[in-house]
Design brief:
alpha/beta; two-stranded parallel sheet; about 30% helix
Length: about 600
């Protein structure tokens, strides 16, 4: 209209706060408050500036699979990390389904951490091979900063490596070693830990074969006044009388044994204790818990010799439990007591017990009756993991109706009973998934006929928020798998076992799941070469095929289980690191070639 042409508007995504330029320091502070990794990922994609600020302010990273990215690339992207979690072998390694020489070596990660990451305060390695040299290199470079070291279900190191940790670190607050396979060359590492790390708050070497000397634990309690959690291997409780007297801040204890019956009257637990997991406890040992059972918030009875009646008597005295772990000997009657007593319960784990019916009580074994009672009585539950002998659609519907806070649900149907009351479980699974809208993790391991193609389709249709899923013995045909895949828009990690699907259908289904980053399959209609798996090939997608061993196809091990290599396995995962170089001879890398 006769004036100067206006300057072209700069439509940059940097101007996302109402068109006002945000100073760098303020942007760093704002993004620093964003903790959810998915929100962080979204923020980093806004523009280059936000991408850079995210890199400089990110304090914690979880690497879901150690081959998904190279250590050098990750640490170059996030140079100021204070906390790092790296996960190694597939979960199947916990059940003996992955060979020992499979990989997941910690060495590349330790080398980069020692050289680059100067801010590192917390490190967790899960299901990885860690050597004494790895531990020595790590603490030599980062021991002065390290406050938390967790080695979860790791192998390859000894107590010599733990001595390096205990002597080089001065600020350790957490040392976690649960279920690690550790070579025991002496218990001096505990003594060194107590002398050099006075701020230690958590020590866990539960479910290991490490020897422990009561005198070392007493020194630990004397020097580490902030010790609030101790989980140990076998040690007679009567030898821990002095330790319990000195550990006045202790809130959690697990481990120990009951060998000297006559000394138990002198065992006095610290007054703040609210979490307990005693091993090898029998009926006559239960009274040791009664004086403080009313204040217990966490109780682990998985490794006890208690009967169904014992469970009923003990749990009836524990109204404030938030976490309960048991074996299925608790029975439906015991779960009824849990439902009537533990109204605040948030986490329930029911592990598999002895498979010999002669060793189970008449009331032992968990079925739809016990799970229904739990669903109705414990409405604060966020986590349920259960091995059951029988199950019905109605029980699953009850969980969907009453357990609205459920985030993680895992069910394994045992093959103990010849006949299951109500199969397939299509309607029950649909009701559970529709009712429990907060579910993020879901596992269902059934028996043949447990879930039809229609039921498998329901799982895909109603799993909108689920990011991890394990399925076993589900579906009837390839069509069911394809229908399932079309609904899984947010699924990131999938594990399949003992399924009837063809290799081609698996590859096509995986291509249909846009968010999938990791899939592991064992037991399907496999070829000898895995040729149809190439249908899922795409950029940044690694495919590893483990063919079945012809020699072990029909052989059984001493425990009655088939050998690890008797069935084909598929592992496919998203990776920025390309093909790994440390795979064993049993693994065939299909893509990239």
């Amino acid at each position: 209209m006769g004036g100067e042409a206006p300057e072209a508007r700069r439509l940059t995504r940097e101007m996302s706060f109402g068109g006002v330029w945000v100073p760098e320091e303020m942007l760093q502070k704002v993004i620093g408050f964003v903790e959810d990794p998915r929100d962080r990922e979204a923020a980093s994609l806004v523009c280059r500036r936000w991408h850079r600020v995210d890199a400089l302010t990110r304090r914690h990273i979880t690497v879901p699979f150690c081959y998904a990215v190279s250590p050098a690339r990750l640490l170059a992207r996030f140079p100021r990390l204070e906390s790092l979690v790296v996960k190694g072998k597939p979960r199947a390694a916990m059940f003996g389904l992955i060979p020992d020489d499979w990989g997941a070596y910690a060495r590349p990660w330790v080398t980069e951490l020692a050289a680059r990451l100067e801010c590192l305060k917390a490190l967790q390695l899960r299901r990885m091979v860690v050597t004494d040299d790895d531990l020595a290199e790590l603490v030599r470079a980062r021991g002065h900063m390290l406050q938390e070291l967790k080695l979860d279900k790791c192998t390859g190191f000894s107590t010599d490596g733990l001595r390096h940790v205990a002597r080089s670190c001065r600020s350790l607050r957490t040392l976690f070693l649960e279920e690690c396979q550790i070579f025991d060359n002496g218990s001096e590492w505990i003594n060194d830990l107590a002398v050099n790390n006075p701020f230690l708050a958590t020590l866990n070497f539960h479910m290991t074969d490490l020897r422990v000397m009561p005198a070392d634990l007493e020194l630990l309690a004397r020097n580490c006044k902030s010790l609030i959690s101790l989980k140990i291997s076998d040690c007679d409780l009567s030898d821990l009388i002095s330790f319990f007297r000195l550990a006045t801040a202790l809130e959690e204890f697990a481990g120990g044994t009951f060998n000297e019956q006559g000394e138990l009257t002198n065992v006095k637990f610290p007054s703040r204790l609210c979490s307990l997991g005693l091993t090898f406890m029998g009926t006559n040992d239960m009274p040791i818990i009664f004086p403080f059972s009313g204040v217990l918030k966490k109780l682990d009875l998985q490794y006890t010799f208690l009967t169904t009646e014992d469970h009923c008597q003990l749990i009836a005295k524990c109204p404030n439990l938030l976490v309960l772990a048991v074996r299925n000997v608790i029975g439906d009657r015991g779960l009824g007591v849990v439902a009537d007593t533990c109204k605040k319960l948030q986490r329930l784990r029911i592990e598999r017990g002895d498979d010999d019916p002669g060793l189970q009580e008449e009331q032992g074994g968990v079925s739809q009756e016990g799970l229904t009672a739990i669903a109705v009585g414990c409405r604060e539950l966020e986590y349920i993991a259960a091995y059951v002998s029988d199950i019905t659609n109605g029980a699953l519907e009850s969980i969907g109706t009453f357990c609205k806070k459920l985030y993680d649900f895992r069910l394994v149907l045992l093959d103990r009973e010849e006949r299951i009351t109500d199969l397939p479980l299509d309607n029950g699974v649909r009701a559970l998934l529709r009712g429990c809208t907060k579910l993020g993790r879901f596992a269902l391991y059934l028996r043949p006929g447990g879930l039809s193609d229609a039921g498998l389709g329901y799982v895909g249709q109603y799993s909108g928020n689920i990011h991890y899923m394990l399925l076993g013995n589900v579906g009837e045909t390839d069509d069911g798998l394809i229908h399932f895949a079309l609904g899984c828009v947010n699924l990131r990690k999938l594990e399949l076992r003992s399924c009837c699907f063809s290799e081609r259908a698996l590859a096509l289904a995986i291509r249909q799941m846009p968010s999938l980053r990791y899939v592991w399959v064992q037991g399907y209609k496999a070829s000898q070469t895995g040729r149809d798996l190439m249908l899922m090939a795409r950029p940044y997608w690694n495919i590893e095929f483990t063919p079945p061993s012809p020699e072990n196809a029909d052989r059984l091990m001493e425990d009655g289980e088939p050998p690890v290599d008797s069935q084909a396995q598929i592992l496919a995962y998203y990776s920025l690191a390309g093909r790994r170089l440390d795979y064993p001879r049993s693994v065939v890398p299909l893509y990239p070639a």
